[in-house]
Amino acid sequence: MNKVLEQIGLHGIVPVVVINDAAHAGPLAEALLGGGLACIEVTFRTAAAQAAIGTIAKQYPDMLLGAGTVLTVDQVKSAVDLGSRYIVSPGLNRKVVEYCLANGIPVTPGVATPTEIESALDLGLEAVKFFPAEASGGLPYLKAIAAPYKKLKFIPTGGIDEANLLGYLKFPSVLACGGSWMVKAELIAGGKFDEIQRLTAQAVNVMLGFELRHVGMNTADGGSAGAVAQQLGTLLRLPVKDGTGSLFVGSQFEVLKRMYLGTHGHLAIGTHFIDRAIAYLEARGVKTRPDTRNEKDGRLLSVYLDMEVGGFALHLLQL
Prior knowledge:
Blueprint: H1 3-11, E1 13-17, H2 25-35, E2 39-43, H3 49-59, E3 64-68, H4 73-82, E4 86-89, H5 94-102, E5 107-111, H6 114-123, E6 127-130, H7 138-146, E7 153-156, H8 162-169, E8 177-179, H9 185-189, H10 193-208, E9 211-217, H11 222-236, E10 240-242, E11 246-249, E12 253-256, E13 265-271, H12 274-282, E14 294-296, E15 299-309, E16 312-318
Parallel strand pairs: 1-2, 1-8, 2-3, 3-4, 4-5, 5-6, 6-7, 9-12, 13-16
Antiparallel strand pairs: 9-13, 10-11, 11-12, 14-15, 15-16
Helix pairs in contact: 2-10, 8-10
C-alpha cells in the first residue's frame, strides 16, 4: 500500500476540518498534535482553505496534511503545490482521480455503492472514502457492500463520533475513520483550542483503549516462581496456572521463572490496536524492543517498550 495511506491507517483518525479564518490554522494544528493526532484533512469549502493548508504545511511539516472536498484538477494542483500530501474528494470524480494517479498523488474519492466501488477498483485504487457513512446505512451497510472486495480499504466519514468510532475501526476493511466531532467549526471559530485538544485526546484514548491487563514479577527460577505464585493464590483465593516460562495467578498476576526485563518485573498494557499504539508511542520518543516481538500468522500480539516506569518494564498486548 502507498506509504501515505499506511500512515493514515496508523493514525486511525483523520480530523476533517473547515477553516474560515487562516489565522486559526496554526493553533488548530497545535491542538491536534497536543491531543495525540498528527493528521489533518483541510476541506476546500472556504476562501481560507488554501492559506490554511499553506500555513500548516510550512509550520508543521510532521503533520500528515491532506486536502478534502477537492472537486477539480486545478484544486488538486493548488493543494499539492501548497503542501498537501493526499487528496480526498466527496465523490468519485474520474478526472481528479486519474490526474492524482498519473502524478503519484494519494487520493481517496468518496463511494457509497458497489458500482462506485468497482469503478474505484477499475481505476486501481487501494483505498476509498465511504461517504456519507452513517447516512448511507452505517457499519452494517459497509460490511455488506465491502464483503466482495477484500483488497480494498475504506475510510468511513460522515456521522462518525466517539460512540461508533471503535466499531468502525475494528472492521478489518476499515483503514481509518474521518470525523469532525473534535474539530467542529464553532469550536475553531470560537478559538476553543483547549477543548479541541481535550476532545482529540479523548478520541485517541477511545481508539487505543490502553488498560492494565496484568502485573508481571521476576523471580530467580521455577522454584521461586512457584512459591510466589502459591502465596499469592492462597492469599487472594485465585487459581494458579503453570506455564512454560511463567505461572499465572488468576488473570491479574504473571510470575516469571527467571529474571527478565524490568528491575521488578513488567506491566502488561492492553490496547485495541497494537500497531497504532506503537506508532503513537514512537511519535513521543518511546521505541519498542524488536527482540521481544511475539507474532502469530504475521500478526503482532505483544512487544515490550524500550523503557521502565518505576522499575517496571512496559509490555504491550493486542486485546
